[in-house]
Amino acid sequence: MEITKVLRTRQVVSWASLACVAVLLTACNSSASSAASSATSTAGPVSTPGAASTSSAAAAAPASSTAAPGIAVSSPGTATGSPSAAAGPTGASTFLAAGQDLNGTQLHEPSCGGLGCALSGDSTTFLANMKWTTWSGTEAVGTGTYKINDCSPNCAAGHVYPVATVLTLSQPVKVCSSSGTRWVWSHASFTFPDGLPEALQGQNAPQNPWTFSTLITAAQQSCAS
Question: Which residue ranges make up each domain of the chain?
Answer without folding.
Answer: 90-224
